[in-house]
């Protein structure tokens, strides 16, 4: 049965940690609604680009929700295909943002060519998936890299865990456009290691059957279930793991949030020589547009010069 330790309502922009005691695994379910819809609708992305960006947002929330850090985690893909870059920032307080850089003509050509090869090789091509954790200037930057090998982002994430973290991990990603809005979901689970001699974590060979059973159960979860606003996370977990005792913990809310600001934009402009500022002027002003939230900010040469004077004072 499901044991609800948190007594919190099910959320549609939330990360739900859980543990299946009978199968010795822990995991997280991610459900995104307003957060992913805000990101995907504020840009005029082709559907194929929106789907990959939405999946990467769900993956970033699943990864970030399992890390203990204070700052920003970035998950991104870089490739030589029509979609050059997809980047998602996940903040330790649950705020998220994301964007994609792509060649619209090449994306259209790739989509017209059919679905052979899967979305990653067809749209992103050869490249890397990177996970970066930045906890501020006084801490060491952590980065993990893995080649983009696999047909889907879930395949690539599985390879990341296998090569970089060496943790038995299974996951599923989903994205859907339902009732005029985008929704995304993810479910990920990992084996719980036991402590051996010298408190060294080990994975018991005797529990291989448990892990195979867990992976088989996860495979029955559908994309519709992960993105259905009418299906609660608790009900989904009960469907999957009720025979083995699933326990859920306090949820973490997720929301859209962008760190762009007038101060940040001014700081960038102040680093540009005045002669180059003149080349950026359109109708007497410099326009700065945030790649993530599409926010438009306008500055006059006088405002930028004043910022330079304040910085040198």
Structure commentary:
By secondary structure, this protein is of the alpha+beta class. The protein has helices at residues 34-41, 47-64, 104-112, 119-124, 153-165, 208-219, 223-227, 233-241, 262-270, 274-280, 301-312, and strands at 3-4, 14-20, 25-32, 72-79, 83-91, 95-102, 127-134, 142-147, 169-178, 181-191, 194-195, 201-202, 246-248, 252-253, 255-256, 286-289, 296-299. Strands 1, 2, 3, 9, 10, 13 and 14 form a 7-stranded mixed β-sheet that branches. Strands 8-7-4-5-6-15 form a 6-stranded mixed β-sheet. It has a two-stranded antiparallel ribbon with strand order 11-12. It is globular.
| Assembly of the depicted chains | single chain
Number of helices: 11
Q: What name is given to the CATH topology of the largest domain?
A: Hsp33 domain
Which regions are unreliable across 5 or more consecutive residues at pLDDT < 50?
A: 1-9, 308-313
Structural class: alpha+beta
**Can you name the CATH architecture of the largest domain?**
3-Layer(bab) Sandwich
Radius of gyration: 22 Å
Mean pLDDT level = 85
- Taken as a percent bin, the fraction of beta residues is 25-35%
The CATH superfamily name of the largest domain is Hsp33 domain
Main pleated-sheet profile:
7 strands, mixed
General shape:
globular
Terminal CA distance reads: 65 Å
**Helicity range:** 25-40%
- Counting structural domains, the number is 2
Per CATH, the class of the largest domain reads Alpha Beta
């Amino acid at each position: 049965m499901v044991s609800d330790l948190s007594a919190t309502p099910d959320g549609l922009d939330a990360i739900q940690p859980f543990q299946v005691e009978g199968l010795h695994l822990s995991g997280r379910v991610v459900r995104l609604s307003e957060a992913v819809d805000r990101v995907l609708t504020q840009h005029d992305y082709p559907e194929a680009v929106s789907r990959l960006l939405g999946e990467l947002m769900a993956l970033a929330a699943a990864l970030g929700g399992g890390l203990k850090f204070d700052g920003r985690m970035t998950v991104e893909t870089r490739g030589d295909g029509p979609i050059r870059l997809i980047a998602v920032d996940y903040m330790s307080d649950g705020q998220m943002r994301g964007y994609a850089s792509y060649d619209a003509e090449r994306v259209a050509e790739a989509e017209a060519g059919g679905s052979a090869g899967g979305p990653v090789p067809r749209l992103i091509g050869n490249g890397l998936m990177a996970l970066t954790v930045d906890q501020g200037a006084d801490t060491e930057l952590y980065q993990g890299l893995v080649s983009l090998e696999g047909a889907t982002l879930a395949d690539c994430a599985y390879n990341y865990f296998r090569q970089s973290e060496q943790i038995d991990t299974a996951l599923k990603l989903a994205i859907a456009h339902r009732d005029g809005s985008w929704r995304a979901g993810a479910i990920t689970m990992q084996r719980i290691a036991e402590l051996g001699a010298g408190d060294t974590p080990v994975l018991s060979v005797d529990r291989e059957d448990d892990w195979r059973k867990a992976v088989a159960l996860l495979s029955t979860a559908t994309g519709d279930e992960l993105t259905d606003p009418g299906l609660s996370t608790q009900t989904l977990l009960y469907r999957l793991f009720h025979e083995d005792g699933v326990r859920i913990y306090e949820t973490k809310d997720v929301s859209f949030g962008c760190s762009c600001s007038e101060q940040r934009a001014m700081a960038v402009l102040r680093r540009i020589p005045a002669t180059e500022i003149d080349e950026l002027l359109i109708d007497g002003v410099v326009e700065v547009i945030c790649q993530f939230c599409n926010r438009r900010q306008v500055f006059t040469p006088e405002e930028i010069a004043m910022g330079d004077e304040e910085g040198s004072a």
